[in-house]
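For the sake of clarity, the format in which proteins appear in this thesis is described at this point. Each number in the token line that follows is a code from a learned vocabulary of backbone shapes. One such record is shown here in full, so that the layout can be seen directly:
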Amino acid sequence: MRCKFCEKPAFIKLHYPKMYLCEEHFKEYFERKVKRTIERYKMLKPDEKVLVVVSGGKDSAVTAYILKKLGYNIECLHINLGIGEYSEKSEEYAKKQCEALEVPLHIVRVKELFGKGIGEVRTRRPTCSYCGLTKRYIFNKFAYDNGFDAVATGHNLDDEASFIFSNMMHWNTQYLAKQGPVTPAQFNGKLVKKVKPLYEVTEREVVAYALANGIEYMMEECPYARGATTLEYKAILNEMEEKRPGTKINFVKGFLRKKHLFEAELHETELRECKVCGMPSSGEICSFCRFWGLKEPIDFKLHL
């Protein structure tokens, strides 16, 4: 098969829109798509300082690569979760990726902070639940302490579609009301703006783009992710996408058009300052400080 725009052999067959592209034209297509996503949702301004959260995996590596290529002022943050060999490998990949891009990488190690890694805490709370809580708090606090204007994560179209699908299945309207490509800054900037530049590209396209640009990434899955329901929802959506290409993007765009219906139900809990760390909280002590039993705030400020 030949590329739609030139006579070179096809590198990838896209299912939606249906076309064959060579390596060069695929890279152009992907970059234009991400650039358009950033512009459409007014994610970033050219002069903003952006913190890219890199896990060592493909999505965050591609996010950092493409934002740097588009000329944004980026630095990266890797959170080592303390999950044995898996976390050590992840950190090595994050280092390699940032060295190749020549961008600063900051590393926060959960085990150094609390003496325990993810999976080592005795709690009834599911591991993925408190892992998510920990990551979100750390990257937000790190961004706030160091004056970043935005945090960029590597969520792609498949992630978003499965998250929306999962929450619709359980009618978690509060989660649905907050879901989207951009979460604006709140609480005097203590909740830093969050953006998802890969919001409209599929996982398959991300893999192909990483391959086309020689981006090395961690392929192993987190040992705690096995059996997660989100993987089941992804499989269902993949099956639907195969039968009807465009299902995922139409589902996500349709959700965004109707998101206001969920927002109407959202009764925002009034945020206040956490008594321990001073960050936004719905109660006297935020769930992060409560979970980790903190008595004083963690300072992530870089002392350069």
